[in-house]
Design a protein that fits this description.
This is Glutathione S-transferase. The protein has 290 residues and is α+β, with helices and mostly antiparallel strands. The protein has 11 helices and 9 strands. It has a 4-stranded mixed sheet with strand order 2-1-3-4.
Length: 290
């Protein structure tokens, strides 16, 4: 059972990140189609996706188009109860639904003043009073959820759920703008920064799409605060230690160097997303460390 998933730019589309995580984090098969924010409206670029006008959206295997990440989450949870999109425990499930709904409709100041930008991190940001209020609300909600649900791991309501997928772009904003939050909130942000799926999305954002200056802010830039990446680099030629791309299985045409060893990929995007963060990609790491 494979869905079609329509998303926007990896680096900038926070709602697309939420939608993509619903598939990536819960192991649901999809084919990805992208629109570019620099190339016109969603409806112009994806005329076969009526009635949606924004990303993300999905087309179910029976052909129904569903827009809006919260609607997508509920439909996927209904069709794939075994995937665990919502917590099994009723109390935790109710809390997770409430958290996702407040994220879906709230935090306008944080969204407006600090648009998600996976390509840059800033220092010296002085948040407005409205953004500070949003940050205090996030701290309160996250602490309340963890107190109520008593999770053993880093996520809000037990195992990773829709609620965590919805707050992943918030973590990107807090990290990318260097916003000061409580110790417990910072730990939750760092859980996202270290999450393999989050890292794969950011790596694709570094490797694909135009740089959109309208998302840049007039602050000094610093290194991204997530885990340090392995020092891979693109190279122009092989031979590589592998004949087939670790992702597609197709013959290799593009190459990278990691620790003096050349690895091959079937296209520049496969190579470049790996260069951006080699450890984010289990299939590549199995090849490199196998």
């Amino acid at each position: 059972m494979t869905y079609d998933l329509l998303i926007g730019d990896y680096a900038y589309s926070s709602w697309s990140l939420r939608g993509w995580l619903l598939f990536e984090r819960f192991g649901i098969s999809r084919r990805v189609e992208r629109v570019a924010f620099a190339e016109g409206s969603v409806t112009e670029q994806a005329p076969g996706w009526a009635p949606i006008r924004l990303v993300p959206a999905m087309r179910t295997p029976d052909g129904t188009v569903v827009g809006d990440s919260l609607a997508m989450a509920e439909e996927l949870a209904s069709r794939h109860p075994e995937a665990g999109l919502w917590p099994e425990d009723p109390k935790a499930r109710a809390m997770a639904r409430y958290l996702a709904a407040e994220m879906h409709s709230g935090f306008g100041a944080l969204r407006g003043d600090c648009p998600m930008n996976m390509r840059l991190a800033y220092t010296g940001v002085a948040p407005s009073a409205e953004v500070e209020a949003d940050l205090r609300r996030l701290e309160y909600l996250w602490d309340y959820a963890r107190e109520l649900c008593r999770p053993e791991g880093p996520w809000l309501c037990g195992a990773y759920s829709v609620a965590d997928a919805f707050y992943a772009p918030v973590a990107a904003r807090i990290a990318g703008y260097g916003l000061a939050v409580s110790e417990s909130a910072q730990a939750y942000v760092e859980a996202h920064l270290n999450d393999g799926a989050f890292r794969r999305w950011r790596a694709m954002g570094l490797a694909h799409g135009a740089t959109l200056e309208r998302y840049a802010k007039p602050y000094a830039t610093v290194d991204w605060p997530g885990p340090a990446r392995l020092a891979a680099k693109a190279v122009t030629a092989g031979p590589s230690v592998n004949e087939a791309c670790p992702y597609s299985g197709d013959p290799v045409t593009d190459f990278l160097d990691l620790d003096g060893v050349i690895y091959g990929f079937c296209n520049p995007f496969c190579r470049d997303k790996t260069v951006a963060d080699p450890e984010a990609w289990p299939a590549f790491m199995a090849l490199a460390r196998g």
